[in-house]
Amino acid sequence: MDLRNLGAYNKLYGDARGDEVIIELSRILKDTLKRQGSADDFLGHLGGDDFILVTSAKISVPIAERVVERFDEVIPGFYHEKNRKQDLMTVSVVIMDGERERPIEVSRIGPIAGKLKGYTKTLSGSCYVKYHARPEAGAPGSSSPSVKVRIPGQSRSVQVPAADDSDKYADFFGRLIQERRIRTVYQPLVDMKDKAIIGYEALTRSAAGDKEVEPSHLFEMARDAGKIKELDRLCVECALETGQALGPGKKLFLNLNHETLLDTKLIKELFHKKGRLDFKNFVIEVTEQSILRSFDSIRESLMELKNQGVAVAIDDVGGGAVSLRDVTVLKPDYIKFDRSLVRQIDEDIPKQQIILSMILFAEGIQATTVGEGIETRKEYEALKMCGIHLGQGYYFAKPGPAFPEVTGYLIDIIFRLLFVFFWGMMYTRSISSLWDIKHC
After folding, report:
1. Phi/psi at 372 (nearest 5 deg)?
2. The domain at 2-159 falls in which architecture?
3. What is the pTM of this model?
């Protein structure tokens, strides 16, 4: 079980609200099992918005239908009324239906479920997908497994390509790249001391027809389709085209996948179209996962970029994937802390201690620290107290067209002033009433 559009929801309302949706999904699952399951059923949380349920094949479909129906009933309540007309979050359920005589091998469950889950991201609305280890009786193509999709409101299941069909995204990416169906939005990075903007991160948004595809899923699909470098090229080209008005001395943070970084010819072609921007304006962001896949080759590519004046940032530091030794060897100019360390840091002393130790490490290698995903004034104040150099998140500004100003924290200040004004007025009226009573 997996949620679609959770990332978009988190960007709109914040990660804490997204966690509430995940908790609600877990309640739906528990309630459904209590009503329709058996004592032998097993429900597990794989992390994030992913759940797994082991149950009888006979009741798997009724359970999936119940989960989909209940989720669609409750999810509108998690949106503000003005946002309920847009694409709401949906749930997808992948049913791995084996046979007693020939059950699905455990090692194959993950890859098959992953591909089917990716397929559901291209569909509109909540649904469940049922995968049969063997073809159903009378089904055409006797050598292929059977895959069926059911979407609420449709009268019948829909036959779709088998899970191992590597070309299932070919048409989608063919249209997306040819028609350049993406747009770039920018989110400011600000100095934690005076909230001055030092640069912007270029973020990609894409649309499949009238439906927006969550960025993380878009790149997963591109990697499955072997189109990751083509997508990276399109994203950078769009970011450079709309980013030409970047202010003097400002930085433009660009995200590149490891496949693109290892293609030296492609890198040269990308920066050949930099226009009026200088190499010193660019900061290339790489994730810990990208570094792990090809450490030596990635290091050589990044060193070549640094020699041209391009700065390097390591993203999502603190997720536990890369050792500090590897970070030291790469010598990044920026270290961006994983948002899991930032979330509710004002209430978490161990997180503050981790951040403090990482800041000391960053100072040792002369790297600038960045706190990502700052959503509240308390998180901002806690990180500022720790000594983080730069901040990024909804507390300052949401991603928008080139180039959004820092306005988010101003709303917080206005509400605080209104609060003080309101209670000041109440206090003044109370004193006035007491004065009138005294002189009666």
Report:
1. -95, 155
2. 2-Layer Sandwich (3.30)
3. 0.65
